[in-house]
Amino acid sequence: MNYPAAERVIMSTQLLVLAGVVIGALASYLTTTANEKARWKRTLDSRWDDRRVEAYASYAQAVKDIIRCQHESPQVEESPHTPSLFHPPEST
Q1: Cβ(83)–Cβ(89) under 8 Å?
Q2: Nearest to 69 by CA among 55, 85, 57
Q3: Distances (CA, A) of 19 to 5, 13, 36
Q4: Does a structural domain hold residue 33?
Q5: Does any domain span residue 52?
Q6: What's the rounded Cα separation, in Å, for the pair 79 and 87?
Q7: Could you tell me the pTM of the whole model?
Q8: SS3 of 18-83
Q9: What is the DSSP code (8-state) at residue 4?
Q10: Counting Cβ atoms within 10 Å, is residue 79 exposed (0-12), middle (13-18) or buried (19+)?
């Protein structure tokens, strides 16, 4: 098919515009996908940080409870051979 020169210019311009639209859509999709992946990773990391803080707080509370129980328990007698949690050993 032989198209006149004017029609070939119009068709090539339309093809360039169409290619630009396809490239723009692809770039937009890739950028959005990368941003969503990064946001998901930040959210997941934040959840793990919250769980880690909660675990540390729970551990600290358990240690405090153990020390309180030892302090309040009348059955625990300090002896020179048993280290105390309340008094550090004296250096000699």
Answers
A1: yes
A2: 85
A3: 21, 10, 26
A4: yes
A5: yes
A6: 12
A7: 0.47
A8: HHHHHHHHHHHHHHHHHHHHHHHHHHHHHHHHHHHHHHHHHHHHHHHHHHHHHHHCCCCCCCCCCC
A9: -
A10: exposed
Q: Domain of residue 56: give its range.
A: 11-65
The answer as to whether 23 is a domain residue is yes
Question: Number of structural domains, the chain?
Answer: 1
Give pLDDT tens digits along the chain (92 positions): 676 777 777 888 899 999 999 999 999 999 999 999 999 998 888 888 888 899 999 999 999 998 888 777 766 555 566 556 555 566 65
The CA distance from 61 to 5, in Å, is 84
In a domain, 22, yes or no: yes
> What burial class does residue 77 get, using C-beta atoms within 10 Å of its C-beta: 0-12 exposed, 13-18 middle, 19+ buried?
exposed
Q: CA 62, 56, 89 angle in degrees (round to 5)?
A: 60
